[in-house]
Every structure is written in C-alpha cells, then in structure tokens.
C-alpha cells in the first residue's frame, strides 16, 4: 500500500470513525484503525464491538484530487497515536507507505513517522446486512428524535434493555421510546416507506445513538436505516454506522399514556422552565430533587421547594390556562427539566390524572412527542 | 440588614470571591459567603484559610445607583446555593432582607427565596497588614510573570515550599522563581519602588497565584502587593486578595544558571515547538516523554523520539544559528513544551553546557525570562 492524501480529508474521516475506537479493549487489534486502500478510494474502520464505524474517502471530490493511489493494500494502525499525529502534521499533504511486516511510514513536510502496523487479516469482518428492509429518514429529524428521547434511558446496567431506545415501525409510523421506570419519553414521525414494513423490539443503546447523533451532518442529509437480526446499520453519505441491537424484550409502554386529565395546565415553556430551574437548585442540595407544583385558581400556579438546611424557594407563575380540579403534586425537578429542555414550542400542556399517576408533558402544538414523569408520594 | 441591589453587579462580585470558597471545609462557617452591608456599600468575603478574597460594591458607580441601602448589617449565606441562585434570578433587581436569627429573604421578580443565614460573628477576622511595604505593579505584567513561572512549581506536597513561586525583591528588581527540581522558570522585572525595600523568601502557592491571575483584570490596572510575616495581600480596584505565605526556606537557585555555553542554538520558536509537539505525542506513550535533539552542522537539527511498541518520529528542522560543539541530548519533551508555550518571541536561544547540565531556554530578545530543564541521561 502506498498513497498520497490531503490531510484535511483524512482527518475528517478519522474524526468520524474515532468515535468507535476502543481505547480500553481486551482485543488488541481493535485498538487500531483499519485502512483499506482500494482502486476507488480508502475506507477507514474502527470498532468497539458494540459500534463499528466505516468512513470512505474517494479519490476525487468535485473534480478535486484527494488521493493519489500508487499501490492498494490494507493495514491496521495504532489508533490513539494515529488520530493525534495526523492532526499535527506540518504539511497539507501526507504520504502513507506500508512495507514488509506492516511497517508503515508517514511523511509530511519534514516529518517522518515510522509506525508498527498490524495485520488487517486479524481485524473482525463486517456483518453483511440484507438490505431489503430500509427506512429512509432526514438526518435532522433523526437527530431531533434522538435528542427528544435519548436522555430518558436508564443508566442502570442491571436491566440492559432499558439503557436503550426502542425503535418501532408500524403503518409508516416510526416511534422512539425511552424509559428508566421513573419517566418516559416518546417521539413519533411518519416515514415514507413500504406500509408493510414493520420493525419490532429494535432497541439501540442510548450512548450509541448519542454518538450517531454527533456524526449525522447538520445540513440536509438522508440516513438510511437497515435493520437485521442483531445489528442495525445507519447509512450516511460517506459513513456507515453499525450498532448492536440490545438483547431482551422491551416492556410494553403503550397503555400507560392516559388521555383523560383531571387537570390540564397550559403554560409558557420558558416561564415554567426558569422557575423549576431555581427550585431545582435548592432541591438538589437535598439529593431528592423534589419540587412542588400547586394550582387552584385560573391564573397562576406556585412552584416551590425546600431544604431543611438551606431554606425555601417559592414562586408564583402566570398560566395560560388551568382547567379541571385543583392540583398539588411533587416531582423530580431534574426529570422535569430534562423534558422541558427538549421541547421547542413556546407553550406546553401538562396533564395530571391523579396524585400517583404519571404527569404528562407535551408541546401544545405537536402530539408526536410525549413525556411522562412519575410523581413523588409526599406528605401534605 | 435590608437592601436593594442590581443583579449584575452582585453577580460580578460573587464571581470574584467565589474562587476562595471552600466547599469541602471542616469549618462550617467557611462554606458561606459573608456579606457586610455598611453605609458606603457592601463587602463580600470568602475564604478557604489559604486564600481570602474580599470584593467591595459601592452604592454608586459613575452616577449609576447600584445599591439602595435601607438598613446596614451582616450575615453569612450558604455559598454554593447563593452563588448559583443569584445568577438565575428572574429580574435585574434583587432585594435582600435579613430578619431575626439571620433568616434571609431574597426577592427578585416573582421569586422569593428564604435562606438560613449564619452568624457573621463566627466568621474569622481578616488579618491586619501593615501597609508600609508596598510594591505597585501593572496587573498585566503580574499576570505574565505568573504565567511564565507558575507551571514549573512542584506538584509534590512532600516539599510544600516547592509547590510555590518564590517572589524576591532586591534593588527594585522583582524576581519570580519556580522549580520542581527537574526544571526551573524565572521571570524578572524592574519595579518603581523604594530602592531600600527588599522582599526575601516570600513563597506563594502556585495554585493561589493561578486563582489570582483569573481575578486580575485584562485592562490597564495596578496591583499593590503588601507583604507581611505570614500573609501577602494583593490589592486591586475593588478586590482584596489575601494569600498565606508557604512555610519553609526556598532553595538557593541563583548559581545554577550558567552563562558559558558549549553549544548555542538559535531557532524559530514555532518550528521547534511544533516538531517537539509531534515527537512528544509518541514519547508520551512510553510515559517517559523522552525526545532527542541532535545537531552537528550549521543549518539544521534533528528532533526524534521512539517507542518500542509504536514506532519512531524523526524530523529535521532548520536553525537560525548553531555555534559551538556538536550537541546530542535527551530531555522531557513535556517540560520543554511547557517552557516554549510561555515564550512569545519569534526566536529562542537554547544553551547547552554539557550532557548532564541544565539546558537553558530563553527568548532571543529578552533576558528577563530564563527556563532550565535537566536533561535525561540516556544510552547513546
């Protein structure tokens, strides 16, 4: 293998795959990045077994030469050092040459680096996914759905399936669900796909989706989702992102979202967020994060919290509408803030169905995102 | 105590004193910020016993009313919560009222906060420093001297005096020295003070000077330094910064800076920094940070490092001048980079006095800053 390549293009591809590098792996070969140089360009691969990312760099982009390929071939290079040294090379042009025993020489300007490469044959093979079940979705929409649900996954590894986001497809509706048993977040969109196509119990780690989110470009782009038995592939323009599907059966959450509210509150999102944020500061000191919401009249609600050591925070905020029975409820303010932060609409609707039933939070304009929080049972 | 105050001004003063708050203190009263409201303004005080910071807010600034003082008095408020809640209050105007038992009410917009205050009489008294020995120095110059030396202090608490920077004044020359026994950094300036005034063995913790540096404004300002037996006071416009002087006698380092070089190298700072930075990336993986510098001809030197596992980095860089005997020396590249980063001049001078004698690094234009690094003894 011998080639010349532009530094910025190589660096960009490295940044993409670096999110999958396993620095603490027990499989030595996975501490490297695999480079496959073919006649049409080079492919970089990194994997931590849960995630595998591939990035392709073509020989040319928009008539600009990116790579001069002198000899094809493959090598695995030590990732940590490779990632950092490429960024810091003195020239915009890089020469990479692999000789016997995968000895690799990188030249750029006056710098010459000799690297001990590893045998690419030892690198795990990519899974082959049947591409007959493909969902195509706008990258920006996918990012938004991840943002709206990913924060609500469980951190508790004792129930691994809850550390993931459930992705369901039925009758062209793609639905993401995440819950840690104390709260739940869902986001649904309609996708343009075969009405017969269904996805069921596809659960992807919240951390993985977070990494995926960083790779999806902000500009208009399409992500093709290919699901197989144990793997999902997210295909972007020059990047392939493979993720393992989490084992286990996701609990059925479809019946816990009630539509019959005892009390319905409509309030300006920012007003409520800021008031709860202040009450949270105090409740946080008590470790419980308990904040109370109480409303009786039609014009305002009271947000309050207290700490035996520090004191009290109390605030009246104006409401747009408050209908139904008087409400007095305690909840985890951190969970409430997490939900409020991903709601973009100016006003939100909060539904209460009883002192011990989930609080329902949703934007006033959009029924495709719903958040649930279990209230606390508190005295008075 | 009862007063109204502008949020931004209070917040700015809190940010200054917050650098001295001790969140993990065994002295409960020090977990608070003391507020003293007098007829001319309010003073905030925070302390972790090593550092004490006071910030004063006058009633008016440039004809703008900052504080409306209704009733003077003092209170100590829980720092962590106080610092954060003030930032997040809904209005630009804040009312603070202290009633019986130091119960404090903070009102802003629709928010009302009750805080359990503490007795200000329990707060430690400020030391009184005799102000007959004062050095006045530009804030920007003081910041620069701290930057040029502070990084070289020892992290090893077993010799506490070396975790500080030595500040000496003699014949109007103020000199800062820091060393961790492997390297040494000095910076000297001439100050406009009484020629008789001398400071000897004043050693201030590197961490403390780092905190001080963050408080000194970037604009033109003067810092007055007042030294007493066990304390130094840095007086700024509205902030007083007290620091403990470290116990112990600082070693005499005045004789280790040789002026007779076997080899003298003049080189472009950026060229050398970038090359050593690349070699450092590899040497870091070996934990030793060893990088070699070798020069024989007149036109270039070679920077190199190697790792048994990863490989080698090698680079020729052009020199401006190389005079004297051939040089071949190994050093800790992290220490070299630390020194190079605080040198602003375009070219630097490096002096070698022998394989096991300190390497001397200084800007080519300025003799008031000198860095020393002990080389490594290495085979060939």
From TrEMBL, chains A, B:
Which purpose does this protein serve, as stated in its record? Confers DNA tethering and processivity to DNA polymerases and other proteins. Acts as a clamp, forming a ring around DNA (a reaction catalyzed by the clamp-loading complex) which diffuses in an ATP-independent manner freely and bidirectionally along dsDNA. Initially characterized for its ability to contact the catalytic subunit of DNA polymerase III (Pol III), a complex, multichain enzyme responsible for most of the replicative synthesis in bacteria; Pol III exhibits 3'-5' exonuclease proofreading activity.
Localization of this protein? Cytoplasm
Instruction: Please name the NCBIfam families in this protein's record.
Output: dnan
Keywords of the record: Cytoplasm, DNA replication, DNA-binding, DNA-directed DNA polymerase, Nucleotidyltransferase, Transferase
Concerning Pfam families, the annotation shows: DNA_pol3_beta (PF00712), DNA_pol3_beta_2 (PF02767), DNA_pol3_beta_3 (PF02768)
Ranges for domain DNA polymerase III beta sliding clamp central: 139-252
Per UniProt, subunit arrangement is:
Forms a ring-shaped head-to-tail homodimer around DNA.
The record, for InterPro entries, names: DNA_clamp_sf (IPR046938), DNA_polIII_beta (IPR001001), DNA_polIII_beta_C (IPR022635), DNA_polIII_beta_cen (IPR022637), DNA_polIII_beta_N (IPR022634)
DNA polymerase III beta sliding clamp N-terminal domain span: 1-127
The protein's name: Beta sliding clamp
User: Which species does the entry assign this protein to?
Assistant: Ferviditalea candida
Q: Does the keyword Nucleotidyltransferase apply?
A: yes
